[in-house]
Amino acid sequence: MRPQFNPKLKTSGGGISVSGLTGETKADTSGGGLKFTRLHGPLDGATSGGGIRVADCEGTLKVHTSGGGIDVSGGTGRFIGRYLRRLGHCERISRSNQVESSGGGITLENVAGKVEGSTSGGSISAGFQRRCPMK
To answer: Which residue has the higher pLDDT, 109 or 22?
Structure first.
């Protein structure tokens, strides 16, 4: 059994990076980007001044940015992204996805799961994984 941590991180002048933890992660910054890798558990991250990068995380991922793009790759669970300028490079994601943009288009690539998307400032493009035949 992995040790569990529940970090609550907040900064007004820089970025936040969290990697390899199990537990509930909360991160909030006004002046930088967010980076999360190999997390196991729910994630709630918000930034006003930077982009967000999420890689190989498991659990409900809720992220919000008003100052940059969001890149998500790998992982499982539910993804909720809000106030995006751009969402891209979503690869091998088996999850329910909910994305909203008020500042630009939304791009989802190679997604295997349900997608709900809305934007007031651009187009929506979604590419889904082709189902492999059962052997």
So the answer is: 22
